Amino acid sequence: MNITENEVKTKGVFVFDDALKQDDEVVINVRGKNKYMVLDIDRYNDFRANSLDIKNGDYQIQTAEEHIKSLPLSII
Predict the structure, then answer these.
(1) Closest CA to 13 of 1, 23, 22, 26
(2) C-beta of residue 34 within 8 angstroms of C-beta of residue 18
(3) Which of 51, 18, 24, 50 is nearest to 37 (CA)?
(4) How many separate domains does the chain show?
(5) Is residue 35 part of a domain?
(6) Residue 45 falls within a domain, yes or no?
(7) d(CA 49, CA 30)
């Protein structure tokens, strides 16, 4: 979902509550250009955890089929 900087100025941070109920990401548009991204804190923490895994080299390169086979049966 996209919102403008003017919406943030007029409605305050409460505009994010409404927007995040409709979508899990909110893009703030400044002068017609996408400038900022707002995420729910849980989603942000997930991204952050995945980012740290990549930086630390803690990941595997595998095909989709290999990945599916590695998942616990309870997830599939």
Answers:
(1) 26
(2) no
(3) 24
(4) 1
(5) yes
(6) yes
(7) 29
Are the beta carbons of 33 and 40 closer than 8 angstroms? no
- pLDDT of amino acid 9: 92
| Residue tagged 């895994």 (tokens) | 53
Q: Say if residue 52's pLDDT is above 70.
A: no
DSSP 3-state of 59:
coil
Both tokens assigned to 64 = 């989709």
Q: Which residues contact 40 (CB under 8 A, 6 or more apart)?
A: 20, 24
Per the CB < 8 A criterion, the answer to whether 59 and 35 are in contact is no
Q: Look up the domain containing 33 and give its range.
A: 2-58
Residues 53, 59 contacting (CB under 8 angstroms): yes
Q: What tens digit of pLDDT does each residue of 11-32 get? A: 998 999 889 999 989 999 999 9
